[in-house]
Design a protein that fits this description.
The chain is of the alpha/beta class and 388 residues long. The chain has helices spanning 11-18, 21-32, 43-52, 92-112, 149-161, 242-250, 264-282, 348-357, 365-375, and strands at 37-38, 54-60, 74-81, 117-120, 164-173, 179-187, 193-198, 224-226, 229-233, 255-259, 285-289, 292-293, 296-301, 310-312, 316-317, 321-323, 338-346. The protein has a single domain (35-375), classed as Carbon-nitrogen hydrolase (Nitrilase/N-carbamoyl-D-aminoacid amidohydrolase, 4-Layer Sandwich). The structure holds N-(aminocarbonyl)-beta-alanine. GO terms for molecular function: beta-ureidopropionase activity.
Length: 388
């Protein structure tokens, strides 16, 4: 039997293998915007990466010009993408703890790289089982956002490394009838739970049957003021919704993280566009993080799409990246390996780009508020002018 074709490592590796010299530089200029300076990765971080089998890439976004009246506002963000560590048939606690242990090593490497804010992928401590429609054992993993095992684990890391940590979990609202939510918890660098955001848009696409587990979030568009800047979280499927991105910007976000879990056939051609476009349109930085690998579940499931029952959700393609408001972006992390992407940002770039593009000044909230208010009425008639 022919073996499956190996996964492509990354678009960047393909380009570098096949295009050389000035042609490569020109292609990168057109595809990625300005050429970002790479940052030196400390030896301690390299050693951890070698020992625990993950890659590290590190880049620096500068500003357009040096300001006279404001000092630079430098912050380092770290994006962590991983595969699950243990098979999905292992005891739940062992699966979760193996992921904790592995991710802790990558956070340690991030600390060596001087990272101030780290964000993990969507529902990072578990396999992405919340698609299969199998309720058990997976609902058992749901936990309190305020003091569940994952938040407690993250709080220790935050305190140890003086890092803000953005941690996506399956929340069980123990104070409200045990309702489940897809929630991201923001833990301050002091270890305090700063707050949480519940996923606004729940997918009903392909095998992503997440609406069997949780409803659309009820937390609006919170922005978290941290010591290192104002941050927000647009959880996975919300990246297809421009108004979701917009509202985080309107509320003052300077960096919007997009912890995701998405597979190649569904979204790969969109991946490099959506978070990057959001950065351009909203005048802030975006950071998109995706998990890696194929996760195989004990029981077959199907989605009513004519395909035979199967045990996996297809391939999670990693490729995490950071984009800036001027449209420049980092290369993606690998499609096939666990990784840490470090990006140094000067948050002053946001205002410099906004002053230049005037995208915020010209966006006409008044016009769209009036139009959307009409659209939301049950008797709305589309504004079509007909040739008859
Ligand atoms: N987790 C999640 O929302 N996935 C949906 C798939 C996609 O948006 O690409």
């Amino acid at each position: 039997m022919a073996s499956a074709k190996p996964q492509t490592e990354s678009v960047e590796k393909l380009l570098e293998k096949n295009v050389k010299g000035e042609d490569l530089t020109e292609i990168k200029r057109i595809l990625y915007g300005k050429d970002l300076q790479t940052l030196k990765i400390p030896a301690e971080a390299q050693t951890l990466a070698g020992k625990h089998d993950f890659e590290i890439q590190a880049y620096k976004f500068g500003t357009i010009f040096k300001e006279q009246l404001r000092t630079p506002r430098i912050v380092r963000v770290g994006l962590i993408q991983t595969q699950i560590v243990r098979p999905t048939s292992d005891p739940l606690k062992e699966q979760r703890e193996a992921i904790y242990d592995h991710v802790a090593k990558i956070v340690e490497a991030a600390a060596y790289c001087g990272v101030n804010i780290v964000c993990f992928q969507e529902l990072w401590p578990y396999p992405f089982a919340f698609c299969t429609r199998e309720k058990q054992p997976w609902c058992e993993l749901a936990e309190s956002a305020e003091d569940g095992p994952t938040t407690q684990f993250v709080q220790k890391l935050s305190r140890q490394y003086n890092m803000v940590i953005v941690s996506s979990i399956l929340e069980r609202a123990e104070n409200l009838e045990d309702i489940l939510w897809n929630t991201t918890v923001v833990v301050s660098n002091s270890g305090r739970v700063l707050g949480k955001h519940r996923k606004n848009h729940i997918p009903r696409i392909g095998d992503f049957n997440e609406s069997h587990y949780y409803m659309e979030g009820d937390t609006g568009h919170p922005v978290f003021q941290t010591q290192f800047g104002r941050i927000a979280v647009n959880i996975c499927f919300g990246r297809h919704h421009p108004l979701n991105w917009l509202m985080f910007g309107v509320n003052g976000a300077e960096i919007v993280f997009n912890p995701s879990a998405t597979v190649a056939p569904l979204s790969e051609p969109l991946w490099g566009i959506e978070a990057r476009n959001a950065a351009i349109a909203n005048g802030y930085f975006t950071a998109a993080i995706n998990r890696v690998g194929t996760e195989t579940f004990p029981n077959e499931f199907s989605t009513g799409d004519g395909l035979p029952p199967h045990r996996d959700l297809k391939y999670f393609y990693g490729s995490s990246y950071v984009a800036a408001p001027d449209g420049s972006r980092t290369p993606g992390l690998s499609r096939i390996r666990d990784g840490l992407l470090v990006a140094e940002l000067d948050l002053n770039l946001n205002r410099q780009v906004r002053d230049y593009t005037c995208f915020q000044m010209t966006q006409r909230f008044d016009l769209y508020a009036e139009s959307l208010a009409k659209v939301a009425q049950p008797d709305y008639k589309p504004q079509i002018i007909r040739d008859n």
